[in-house]
Amino acid sequence: MRDNQYTTEGRIRFSEVDHTRRITLPGIVNYFQDCSTFQSEDLGLGIMHCSERKRAWILSSWQVVVERYPEIGEKIQTSTWATDFKGLFGERNFCMTDTEGKKLAYANSVWAYMDMKKGRPCRPAKEEVEAYRPEAPLDVEFAPRKIVLPKELEDGESFPVRRHQIDTNEHVNNCQYIQMAIDVVPECERAGQIRVEYKKSAVMGDIIYPKMAVEEQRKIVELCDAEGNPYAVVEFKEK
Asked: N or C: which terminus of the chain has fewer CB atoms within 10 Å of its end residue's CB?
């Protein structure tokens, strides 16, 4: 247990599982997102604090590794902690464990502090950084933030952004891009590892044009605009 680790207790709900009676990959990601949100709220640095200052922590990338998908009714703990702050960016780890303390899933993430009015990164205030009191990261060798794209990708069928996919920043929620990618490659719904690199925010009214490539060790989904500029790149791998 880290001194500044923030932990929430939970139980896998019926609404979070699929036909296998196990939580979905987006379900795990939502637990991680919610845990970091709750930490910020409890520190007084949550949604209202950022909104009043026209600021927001925007997810730039993350890597999520799943050791086991917990089942309906199973009790879990979800933890998060900041690991580093460098200029305009912050990093944090996540971990989901079972009642015996065994890892179910864990993640590394990189966040950019954004001036939402100007639409560009800015430096967080000193007190906004110090409140999180960074801890040592997980003893895991995570992959780089950038995802290398294949030379060729196959075009998929386009689809619109739906209202339920929009979050409090009026952008498509981070987890929704993962669900979009799973809809393109359904066989990846139980992936052992996922990396996402977020390029730009999709909003209500946008049309998503997916591209997909299958390689020996991974599957890639690039979610693009009409000009081929990516909103997000999603990489699925087995453990």
From this structure: N
Could you give the 3-state DSSP secondary structure of residue 114?
strand
Tens of pLDDT, residues 74-114 = 999 999 999 999 999 999 999 999 999 999 999 999 999 99
CA distance linking residue 138 with residue 94, whole number of Å:
9
Helix (H) or strand (E) holding 223: strand 219-224
pLDDT tens digits along 132-165: 999 999 999 999 999 999 999 999 999 999 999 9
Q: What is the rounded CA–CA span in Å between residue 191 and residue 182? A: 10
β-pair type (75-86, 55-66): unpaired
Whole-number Å distance between alpha carbons of 166 and 67: 29
Identify the residue whose tokens are 């966040």: 111
